[in-house]
């Protein structure tokens, strides 16, 4: 008799888990998947391109409903898990459905943060996280609304870029002194800011939002320094938080996210967590690649393999206003490591590598990011770089005996 496996969450992590489980153990489980959004899993990474009309909605889709049927997977969409009973091993979906399980995988993702400031509940204030959000932003943009995007991280940049591509008058606000301060150093952030401004986005740094003004809907944003920026559309993109409420209310241990061990098991018997909702060794990554790595490991474990998750090296690869950016490992200005820097202002390229104890610990590339995957593998593997250090800055092709240096793509 097959085990009953319920997966809560049909985002990118949940779908990757299903795909890998089908490869490793296609007949072991009777699988039910519950997704909160009305459609099956899609590529959130493409939301900014969808907003900018560079791709259409079908291009964002991963798998259609018939795929789930062919895999023997029962797919429930547009429904949220409302209660988890750890003792009875069952999860309630909405108010009408109860799903018993032998194994439960929580892939509930994360929820966008709304600033605790006055006016954040006014019509015209939206987040940037889902297909529904893209639809709301597009609708507002079609009316000629002026837009303010709050947040200079990855999501904020993507939202501002998409709006600018639509011809919307857009201002980007960020409370810090540089954009993407977690992934970029000061020089790289300056290049990204210049790229945004070339696309017509006004960038205001050290700009603290005090409140959103309006009577029946959004009219303006007031900053802490007293300035008032007219805006009929406000996009809040200040980050996300792990969606751990279902686990927490069931008595499962949580921190910032749902706590998991190296087997991606929670404190609840038979319950696992992966992706943005999970916290492993004190880290909740909030990135796609770690979520995929966790999904792969868990699929192998449930197929009977002795796979262990040892953590991930955070890496970000994106294109901001047409400017490619890659960031991996430790890249901040205050990192205790030796920086190797190559910059060409005319070409708009910047490369910074950080070396500690003869090992690469961080890589930051702007403009030319082709060597990003190789640098990432050097960071992950801990390979000593001393014997080719003088060539390290120029890429794999310049390294004598490069075939012996790790390359994940070739593996």
Explain what you see:
The protein is of the alpha/beta class and 411 residues long. The protein folds into three domains: 3-111 and 240-302, 3-Layer(bba) Sandwich (FAD/NAD(P)-binding domain), CATH 3.50.50; 125-236, FAD/NAD(P)-binding domain (3-Layer(bba) Sandwich), CATH 3.50.50.60; 322-404, 2-Layer Sandwich (Enolase-like, domain 1), CATH 3.30.390.30. Helix content is 24%, strand content 28%. Strands 3-2-1-7-19 form a five-stranded parallel β-sheet. α1 (12-24) links the parallel β1 and β2 (29-34). Mean pLDDT is 92; it is low at 407-411.
CATH level-4 homologous superfamily of the largest domain = FAD/NAD(P)-binding domain
Assess the beta-strand content as a share of residues: 25-35%
Low-confidence stretches: 407-411
Count of extended strands? 25
Whole-number total of structural domains? 3
Q: Strand pairing plus helix content: what structural class?
A: alpha/beta
**Number of continuous helical runs:** 11
Rounded mean pLDDT score: 92
**CATH architecture of the largest domain, please?**
3-Layer(bba) Sandwich
Basic shape: globular
Provide the spatial order of strands within the biggest beta sheet: 3-2-1-7-19
Looking at this protein, list some descriptive labels.
globular, 5-stranded parallel beta sheet, Enolase-like, domain 1, 411 residues, 3 domains, 25 strands, alpha/beta, FAD/NAD(P)-binding domain
